[in-house]
């Protein structure tokens, strides 16, 4: 299992109407591990509540990490906890940074963010500025006053610039496409972050206008597996403690089956990314589909399964519950 770090909430700052930036410093006062733009951390907000947040700001700063969280009306707990309960001075556990959205070297970079998708892209803009790589950042928000990091994004950059677009003024991502998107240049890469609908719309527009797939990058905040349910085999899951056994049908997750049968499963991301549901397997062969464990962990003698997404290659799996 990867180790966690103890950090202290060192400051919280309002960022536009609905967002809160949170600064985290190591509890022991030491520098935090280095990170690259696009990286995220798992934040253990309280027992059983783990959320992934992109690191933002200047990535050469290891004295503190900054994350930024939108108030989400549909919150499953994380956003509400941050906005209503989290306070400066509180100690939290976090994972070391992991990067599923790394930036590649390119002649020029177009960054497009919607809403809180600005967090990794703001870090990318700062890194591109520091590296002298030309960039443009297009940032879509609903209305004036919603922007996070407004002073930072409004400052003059030497190597790029930021354009902020407001849907309330007729420039939503659907109705407005920046010139760079419609006219792809060679050696230019496009990075997208925001709601799934925004990313699929921009990606489709880009492809229609001649962008190559490999030049378009979005955050892989989803399970690795894309195996269609009809191609999956069913299996049974057995509890080591009681011997109770239930079938897991194609398309179902082990976690769903256990919950339906009254077994308490600690869940958080439900995407194989946070490790909240990792459980030891004592018999059977795991079809690992999580991204939280390393390749070495997935082939170690002691095996753990992400109950929210992984499946079984054997007919039966005995789990230590
Ligand atoms: S709930 Fe996050 S890995 Fe399963």
TrEMBL record:
<dbReference type="GO" id="GO:0016491">
    <property type="term" value="F:oxidoreductase activity"/>
</dbReference>
<keyword id="KW-0479">Metal-binding</keyword>
<keyword id="KW-0001">2Fe-2S</keyword>
<dbReference type="Pfam" id="PF00111">
    <property type="entry name" value="Fer2"/>
</dbReference>
<dbReference type="InterPro" id="IPR050415">
    <property type="entry name" value="MRET"/>
</dbReference>
<keyword id="KW-0560">Oxidoreductase</keyword>
<dbReference type="InterPro" id="IPR012675">
    <property type="entry name" value="Beta-grasp_dom_sf"/>
</dbReference>
<feature type="domain" description="2Fe-2S ferredoxin-type">
    <location>
        <begin position="235"/>
        <end position="321"/>
    </location>
</feature>
<dbReference type="InterPro" id="IPR001041">
    <property type="entry name" value="2Fe-2S_ferredoxin-type"/>
</dbReference>
<keyword id="KW-0285">Flavoprotein</keyword>
<feature type="domain" description="FAD-binding FR-type">
    <location>
        <begin position="2"/>
        <end position="104"/>
    </location>
</feature>
<dbReference type="InterPro" id="IPR036010">
    <property type="entry name" value="2Fe-2S_ferredoxin-like_sf"/>
</dbReference>
<dbReference type="InterPro" id="IPR017938">
    <property type="entry name" value="Riboflavin_synthase-like_b-brl"/>
</dbReference>
<protein>
    <submittedName>
        <fullName>PDR/VanB family oxidoreductase</fullName>
        <ecNumber>1.-.-.-</ecNumber>
    </submittedName>
</protein>
<keyword id="KW-0411">Iron-sulfur</keyword>
<keyword id="KW-0614">Plasmid</keyword>
<dbReference type="InterPro" id="IPR017927">
    <property type="entry name" value="FAD-bd_FR_type"/>
</dbReference>
<keyword id="KW-0408">Iron</keyword>
<dbReference type="InterPro" id="IPR006058">
    <property type="entry name" value="2Fe2S_fd_BS"/>
</dbReference>
<dbReference type="GO" id="GO:0046872">
    <property type="term" value="F:metal ion binding"/>
</dbReference>
<dbReference type="GO" id="GO:0051537">
    <property type="term" value="F:2 iron, 2 sulfur cluster binding"/>
</dbReference>
<dbReference type="InterPro" id="IPR039261">
    <property type="entry name" value="FNR_nucleotide-bd"/>
</dbReference>
